[in-house]
């Protein structure tokens, strides 16, 4: 049994402008001790998807199920949810500057979490544990720093403190919501390394949210690519990097930054993500897709296995053979992506579809 | 250490402010108004020239203005505001006698409006757009727009008169010092406190509601929830704590200006506090008493500001006083 099994989760927010369909039927599972990377552009629903697991999306209308160790997290009573938050599943948020309470000492905030789940722990014991944890995540002189306020910590140190808090009760799952995005490059690498080390030590499962496939390459076992509230592609890290099927995944791969130190993308995906209130008909990616076919405009692709093996799934009508492309076709595809000419893209796709054997081959 | 340095610096600047304020009022009253007018005010309209001259001599009004000023400052340093022109006794005696009523009003009123304002504000924020929230909004609007004397008179009419008609005499007007028993003291203070609270709490309701709604949306509150804390703890230990800072600043401003603001309440309820006293002093042309009141009010502002800055730095570790 998987540690976490999410099935057809849907979350929408009624607003004055209309219903925001933030998550539209996503299924995935996380195994004990494994890392699932969730990737997608800003607004694709990554945060809503994971916060919903902990009941942290007030105002959202939720359906579907999320089985965590035999309990359905959707519709759990507030009491039961409180016992899971922090203890079984903990969260590391994106912005360490604002995630910690500015008016309380860092150590106090860690102690508060420890003691709220185990009343038998004394203040002294909790402080000792906080010192130990801060030392463990690499904060120098933890016995002194435990009495510092968040503003006395650098951004990287604050994220380390958040991580210390997240591991303090040895949770079974940690949700890390873009934990390095707000940090500068060298600190990013250190924090990722720390997360990886801690996870290997403790056999904790990790849900790693990021919009950067580079981060996934460093840390994930499996990857869920999200687009406009749905899963576009779901596969092992290896398949995502060597045999991407969905054009959006390919777009993401092509837009990995040159190096983590610079922000200029190789080639950003053209166009904007759609409004989640009025979604385009058919495949939500079609307005930006270089391969768009007639069918894509009217029919919504389901997430189905790319090959018979079944673990690699993609929500795209392109035939399986298009998983990998011949050099020639790849060039043509890149050309079309650049020019953004849909007509030509359709031709390419059709050519591939007509003669999958001759045109397509796997570039693993 | 930095707190001591802060206090010394602020007390020194406070003294300069008080000196400027007292000098300005002194010259306003003694240099800008002709001596003859002052004397006539004191001796009465029908006073003969001889009597006027006698008055001038008696109060030393004929001396050069700078000599009078030196005398005034010398007295001030010793905590002496001179003699009242109207009552033949030191101004300090009058203040000592009237201060308890004013202090009772200010402290009790502030506590009441703070508690009421915060309670309604917090309830409104946690039940935003509920019936309670809407009713509170209407109440706030009424409180903000109602003049103090109207609220006071209404309370007298409704509570005081009604109770007395039914033979219940707990609520009284006037002022009963706390030495005459807590009961009678409360009986005279409750309506003035409520008046002050109705007028002032409105601002605090709005302020704490808005500030709490803001903080409830902050990342640190989401973190607090994700830690598995109870909703109660998230609200009071995390959100309300952050939301207090603007309330404290506002309190500093309001309490500082309160000495001027209590005049109306004191008059409506006949509390005989220093606010009411100064109104009498103005009509009587009793300059020393008026000057004393102005200095006292300035002192109040200075002290309130220091206290608020200290409270601010105690509330928020990011604020460093120096
Ligand atoms: N409480 C809410 N009410 C209305 N809309 C919401 C709410 N929360 C999220 N949304 C919308 O849901 C969509 C998905 O948001 P989400 O934060 O999950 O994106 P994300 O993938 O995490 O993006 P980012 O990379 O910027 O963090 C967005 O369009 C957002 O505006
Ligand atoms: S080819 Fe069609 S189904 Fe596949 S991503 Fe493009 S638009 Fe969507
Ligand atoms: Mg997000």
In short:
With about 375 residues, chain A is an alpha/beta fold. Chain A is built from 15 helices and twelve strands.
User: Biggest sheet of chain B, in brief?
Assistant: none
The main β sheet of chain A shows up as: 8 strands, mixed
Mean pLDDT of chain A: 85
Provide a count of the helices of chain B. 13
Order of helices and strands of chain A: EEEHEEHEHHHHHEHEHEEHHHEEHHH
Shape of chain A: globular
- Assigned CATH class of the largest domain in chain B: Mainly Alpha
User: In CATH, what is the class of the largest domain in chain A?
Assistant: Alpha Beta
Q: Strand order across the biggest sheet of chain A?
A: 6-7-8-3-9-10-12-11
Q: So, the CATH homologous superfamily of the largest domain in chain B?
A: MetI-like
> Of all protein chain pairs, which has the greatest interface, and how many residues does each chain bring to it?
A-B, 27 and 21 residues
| Average pLDDT for all residues of chain B | 88
Oligomeric description of these chains: heterodimer
Taken as a percent bin, the fraction of beta residues of chain B is under 5%
CATH architecture of the largest domain in chain A: 3-Layer(aba) Sandwich
Structural class of chain B: mainly alpha
CATH architecture term of the largest domain in chain B? Orthogonal Bundle
Structural description of this entry:
The complex is a heterodimer of chains A (364) and B (322). The longest helix of chain A is centred in the middle third of the chain and has 18 residues, at 185-202. Chain A has 364 residues and is α/β, with parallel strands linked by helices. Chain A has an 8-stranded mixed sheet with strand order 6-7-8-3-9-10-12-11, with helices on both faces. In chain A, strands 2-1-4-5 form a 4-stranded antiparallel sheet, with helices on one face. Chain A folds into 2 domains: 30-58 and 72-88 and 172-364, Rossmann fold; 96-170, no CATH class. Helix content of chain A is 37%, strand content 20%. The model of chain A is unreliable at 336-345 and 355-364 (pLDDT under 50). The longest helix of chain B is centred in the middle third of the chain and has 36 residues, at 91-126. Chain B is globular, with a radius of gyration of 24 Å. Chain B starts with a helix and ends in a 7-residue tail after the last helix. The structure holds adenosine-5'-triphosphate (ATP), iron/sulfur cluster (SF4) and magnesium ion.
């Amino acid at each position: 049994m998987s540690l976490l099994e999410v099935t057809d989760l849907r979350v929408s927010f009624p607003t004055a402008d209309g219903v925001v369909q933030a998550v539209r039927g996503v299924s995935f599972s996380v195994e004990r001790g494994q890392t699932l990377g969730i990737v997608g552009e800003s607004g694709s629903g990554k945060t809503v998807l994971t916060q919903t697991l902990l009941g942290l999306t007030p105002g959202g209308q939720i359906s579907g199920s999320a089985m965590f160790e035999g309990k359905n997290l959707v519709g759990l009573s507030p009491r039961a949810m409180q016992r899971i938050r922090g203890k079984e599943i903990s969260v590391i948020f994106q912005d360490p500057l604002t995630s910690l309470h500015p008016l309380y000492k860092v150590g106090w905030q860690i102690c508060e979490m420890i003691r709220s789940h185990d009343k038998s722990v004394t203040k002294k014991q909790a402080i000792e544990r906080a010192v130990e944890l801060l030392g463990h995540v690499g904060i120098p002189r933890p016995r002194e720093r435990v009495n510092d306020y968040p503003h006395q910590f650098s951004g990287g140190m604050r994220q380390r403190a958040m991580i210390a808090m997240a591991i303090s009760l040895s949770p079974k799952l940690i949700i890390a919501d873009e934990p390095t995005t707000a940090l500068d490059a060298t600190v990013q690498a250190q924090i990722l390394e720390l997360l990886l080390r801690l996870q290997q030590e403790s056999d904790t499962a990790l849900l790693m949210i990021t919009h950067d496939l580079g981060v996934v390459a460093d840390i994930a076992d499996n990857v869920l690519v999200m687009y406009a509230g749905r899963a576009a592609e779901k596969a092992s890290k290896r398949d995502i990097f060597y045999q991407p099927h969905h054009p959006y995944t390919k777009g993401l791969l092509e837009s990995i930054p040159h190096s983590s130190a610079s922000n200029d993308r190789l080639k950003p995906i053209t166009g904007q993500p759609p409004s989640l209130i009025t979604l385009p008909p058919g495949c939500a990616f079609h307005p930006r897709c270089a391969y768009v076919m007639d069918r894509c405009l009217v029919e919504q692709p389901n997430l189905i296995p790319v090959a018979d093996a079944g673990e690699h799934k993609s929500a795209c009508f392109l035939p399986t053979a298009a998983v990998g492309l011949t050099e020639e076709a790849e060039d043509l595809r890149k050309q079309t992506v650049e020019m953004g000419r849909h007509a030509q893209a359709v031709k390419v796709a059709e050519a591939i579809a007509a003669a999958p054997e001759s045109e397509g081959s796997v570039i693993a | 250490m930095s707190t001591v340095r802060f206090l010394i610096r602020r007390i020194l600047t406070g003294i300069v402010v008080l000196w400027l304020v007292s000098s300005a009022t002194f010259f306003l009253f003694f240099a800008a108004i002709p001596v003859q007018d002052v004397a006539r005010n004191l001796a009465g309209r029908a006073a003969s020239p001889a009597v006027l001259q006698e008055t001038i001599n008696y109060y030393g009004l004929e001396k050069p203005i700078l000599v009078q000023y030196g005398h005034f400052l010398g007295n001030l340093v010793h905590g002496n505001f001179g003699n009242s022109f109207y009552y033949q006794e030191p101004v300090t005696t009058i203040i000592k006698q009237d201060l308890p009523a004013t202090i009772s009003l200010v402290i009790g009123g502030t506590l009441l409006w703070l508690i009421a304002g915060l309670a309604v504000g917090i309830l409104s924020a946690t039940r935003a757009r509920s019936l309670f929230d809407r009713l509170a909004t209407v109440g706030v609007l009424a409180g903000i727009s109602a003049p103090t004397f109207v609220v006071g008179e209404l309370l007298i009419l409704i509570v005081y008169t009604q109770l007395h008609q039914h033979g219940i005499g707990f609520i009284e007007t006037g002022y009963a010092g706390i030495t005459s028993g807590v009961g009678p003291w409360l009986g005279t203070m409750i309506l003035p406190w409520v008046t002050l609270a109705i007028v002032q709490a409105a601002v605090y309701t709005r302020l704490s509601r808005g500030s709490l709604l803001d903080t409830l949306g902050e990342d640190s509150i989401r973190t607090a929830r994700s830690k598995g804390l109870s909703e109660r703890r998230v609200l009071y230990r995390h959100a309300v704590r952050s939301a207090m800072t603007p309330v404290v600043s506002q309190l500093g401003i309001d309490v500082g200006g309160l000495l001027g603001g209590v005049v109306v309440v004191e008059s409506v309820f006949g509390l005989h506090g220093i606010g009411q006293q100064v109104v009498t002093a103005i009509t009587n042309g009793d300059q020393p008493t008026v000057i004393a009141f102005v200095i006292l009010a300035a002192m109040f502002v200075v002290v309130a500001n220091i206290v608020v800055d200290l409270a601010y730095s105690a509330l928020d570790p990011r604020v460093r006083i120096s």
